[in-house]
C-alpha cells in the first residue's frame, strides 16, 4: 500500500509524505503489535478507544519517520481499500482528526519518500520521547507467531492443500474447565508434511509464514492442542479483551477466524479445519481436524468475535 508522492498531512510542524497506512481497531489491527486490540494500542501508548484509530506512516521534509494517529477510521479504510485495488488515493486527513504525531514507525515499511533524506528517527529534541520501532521478528516468538498466523489466513488454500484428510486420526481432546463443554473432539494428523519453500524450523529457508512448516505427527503436539482448545472454549464463557477473536470474510458462507491467547494463535475456517501456532513450538503449524466438536467451537467463537465494518 502506498499513497501518491503528493500525499501529505500536517504533523510535527512539518509536511508528512505519506507512505502507507494501517487500521488500529478491535476488528482489524497489526497483529504483530499484540494478541488483542488493547495490547496493540498499548504498544503505541494509546488508549483503546471503541472506534479505534487510523495510522498514517510517512516521512517529514527531513526524511524523519513519523506515525500520525487519526480518529477518522473510515478515511484510512477507504485509502487502504483503494491502494489494495491498485488505485491512487490522496490520503490527506484533516488536522482536526489528528490524535497524535508519534516519532518512528511501529511497522516495517519497505518504501521511502522520493526527494528527501533516507528514513531515520527524528532528533530527540523534536521527538519528545523514544521513537517507535517494529517488533523484533528475527527470532521465533509472539510477533513472528502472529505474523505466521496472518500469513496462513491470507494464503489458506496453499496451507490447506498440504493436509491430507485421510491422514487424520480421531482423538478426543479435553475442552477444559467450561461447565457446558466437557470435551472437544479433534483430529491429530499422522504424517509430517513440509511446507513448499523450505524446512522452516529445521534451520533451512524460511517459508512464507514466518519460517513455519505444517507438522502432522501422531503424538507430538496433542497436549498443546488440548490446552489451546480449552483456552479457546473458555473465551466463549468469559469474553477476552477486544480483538482476541476476530472474524473476517471467507468464500461461500464460511468465515475466517483468528484467535490469539498467551503463547498461541489459531487460524480456522468455520466450514473447515484449524491451524495452531505456538511460541513453545518454533516454526511449527499444528493442524486440527474437524471432528464432531470443532465445528461447534468455531461457530461459538464466530458468534462472539468482532468483525470489520
From TrEMBL:
Residues 175-224 are annotated as: Disordered. Residues 195-210 have a biased composition (Gly residues). This is Integral membrane protein. It comes from Streptomyces griseoruber.
Amino acid at each position: 500500500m502506498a499513497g501518491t508522492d503528493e500525499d501529505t498531512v500536517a504533523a510535527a510542524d512539518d509536511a508528512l509524505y505519506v507512505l502507507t497506512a494501517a487500521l488500529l481497531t478491535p476488528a482489524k489491527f497489526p497483529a504483530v503489535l499484540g494478541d488483542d486490540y488493547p495490547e496493540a494500542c498499548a504498544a503505541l501508548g494509546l488508549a483503546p478507544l471503541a472506534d479505534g484509530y487510523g495510522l498514517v506512516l510517512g516521512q517529514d521534509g527531513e526524511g524523519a519517520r513519523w506515525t500520525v494517529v487519526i480518529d477518522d477510521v473510515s478515511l484510512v479504510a477507504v485509502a487502504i481499500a483503494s491502494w489494495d485495488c491498485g488505485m491512487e488515493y490522496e490520503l490527506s486527513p484533516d488536522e482536526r482528526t489528528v490524535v497524535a504525531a508519534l516519532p518512528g514507525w511501529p511497522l516495517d515499511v519497505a518504501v521511502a519518500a522520493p526527494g528527501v533524506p533516507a528514513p531515520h528517527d527524528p532528533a530527540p529534541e523534536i521527538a519528545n520521547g523514544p521513537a517507535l520501532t517494529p517488533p523484533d521478528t528475527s527470532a521465533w516468538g509472539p510477533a513472528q507467531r502472529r505474523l505466521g498466523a496472518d500469513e496462513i489466513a491470507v494464503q489458506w488454500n496453499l496451507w490447506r492443500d498440504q493436509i491430507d484428510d485421510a491422514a487424520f486420526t480421531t482423538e478426543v481432546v479435553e475442552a477444559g474447565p467450561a461447565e457446558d463443554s466437557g470435551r472437544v473432539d479433534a483430529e491429530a494428523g499422522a504424517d509430517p508434511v513440509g511446507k513448499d519453500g523450505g524446512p522452516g524450523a529445521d534451520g533451512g529457508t524460511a517459508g512464507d509464514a514466518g519460517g513455519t512448516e505444517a507438522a502432522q505427527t501422531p503424538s507430538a503436539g496433542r497436549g498443546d492442542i488440548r490446552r489451546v482448545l480449552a483456552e479457546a472454549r473458555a473465551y466463549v464463557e468469559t469474553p477476552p479483551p477486544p480483538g482476541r477473536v476476530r472474524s473476517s470474510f471467507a468464500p461461500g458462507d464460511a468465515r475466517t477466524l483468528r484467535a490469539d491467547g498467551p503463547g498461541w494463535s489459531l487460524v480456522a475456517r468455520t466450514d473447515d479445519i484449524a491451524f495452531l501456532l505456538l511460541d513453545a513450538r518454533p516454526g511449527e503449524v499444528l493442524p486440527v481436524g474437524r471432528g464432531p466438536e470443532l465445528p461447534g467451537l468455531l461457530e461459538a467463537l464466530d458468534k462472539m468475535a468482532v468483525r470489520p465494518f
